[in-house]
């Protein structure tokens, strides 16, 4: 990007920051916003587009366009979620601000805040949750109702102000919060609260809000009670049912203070029932980050059977992935070679096995075997000599023996039927 130097502008924002923000936006891909400019179109005039963003942000004249509202299925098979899709240019501008906020906020964040933070993962949250469920008999499974639609702007800005950021950071956060949304019919919808889920700046704003609304409040008022928080998804560990009931009431009051409401059905107290904890309670399982925690059979390192309170891929996540596998219609892709199919499927399935196979991987086997079943059907369609099941199974066994690493999931499941 050429043009004026940062010293000529009221706000000091480097062109390098804008370029790096664009690299991040490009890597994350994503759909076009209300201007219908996709990444390819933006890239065709990238230099001029990035200069315009830098120039307007540095001068204080950047005003965000409306966000485009899109409904998508929830990731673990739980209905639909409304996302706000900013334009490509707006995602770049938001990323510039988000990175400034992340840098300032990282030192103050609680160690058990796991969502949308560099070097912190959902898997780490699951590991901490699993470990604490072994030592604490009770869990409060918190569900904040419509968090991204309900969060108060004044408290978001108060949380941002606490970081003492540069004035332009607060200026643009205010403008993004107030930007209208555009529905599928083109109608503009004014908003007076919430931050659009799907925008680049929303995750850090949500983290900042929940840091002060929940993490710091827990540390101040209930020190020593462990929890894991991933954005607005929270699990709290208690030593007794009485402690859980009292604490849940206090959390409900706290959420009301900051303008939020716990979901009356999805929020629940759970007893971590297993082989050594044999009491009774209405709820003995909960789902966190796509894993369901409940009593499951397992073996010790010495091979002894026991029943532990353990996480495994949730039924909702398993169903959602199964539906995705069906939509692939692998068995009809006879124009592709087996190597083509591997290049297509491996990156997707590798991500699934790395995440959902981290704990109790045997629960993932039905999904992987279903993929194999489609591959077997593909073999029978593509090659006439393999139309019989017996011939196809013989070929399958030969392929999996000769090329065991062709498909990433064959390290775990080579059986072609369930």
Rounded to the nearest angstrom, the radius of gyration is 25 Å
Q: Could you estimate the helical fraction of the residues in percent?
A: 40-55%
Order of helices and strands: HHHEEHHEHHHEEHEEHEEEEHHHH
Question: How much β-strand is present in the residues?
Answer: 5-15%
* Cα-to-Cα separation, first versus last residue: 57 Å
Largest sheet entry: 4 strands, mixed
Can you offer a commentary on this structure?
The chain is of the alpha+beta class. The longest helix is centred in the middle third of the chain and has 20 residues, at 202-221. The strands form three sheets. It has a four-stranded mixed β-sheet with strand order 2-1-4-5, with no helix packed on it. A four-stranded antiparallel β-sheet has the order 6-7-3-8. A three-stranded antiparallel β-sheet has the order 9-10-11. The chain is flat. It has helices spanning 15-28, 39-44, 46-59, 88-105, 122-135, 147-150, 153-161, 167-178, 202-221, 241-257, 315-328, 338-356, 365-382, 389-402, and strands at 67-73, 80-85, 138-143, 181-182, 188-189, 227-230, 233-238, 268-271, 286-288, 291-299, 305-313.
